Amino acid sequence: xxxxxxxxxxxxxxxxxxxxxxxxxxxxxxxxxxxxxxxxxxxxxxxxxxxxxxxxxxxxxxxxxxxxxxxxxxxxxxxxxxxxxxxxxxxxxxxxxxxxxxxxxxxxxxxxxxxxxxxxxxxxxxxxxxxxxxxxxxxxxxxxxx
Length: 146
Fold this sequence. Notes:
alpha+beta
């Protein structure tokens, strides 16, 4: 079990968005609603499939190759076991904010407040690249700072 958790952590570390990049919050009125819905729906599909004992099979239209390869069936199932042990079952999500990178990669960080059985403040962080493909996906305790 420890080996799987370490692999998941290493995967997320390798696919994470660099904290060296500066991010600015996008005003609610300037958020592209279509891209927001894409991030919301993708996040919900991934976690709902995991909650139901399955996994969400990413494709090249919606995710980078690194994410497709990294979020395999075994990784998704093992990581959801950890999520469930820490926070309880996934129940839903609510959009909180969008942060955009100021570097040439133009990552968009969609921050959702996750609704889990524990009622703890949990962030579902969905990162899209400049092509609106999933480039990062994180479940973690909420922090006002990235």
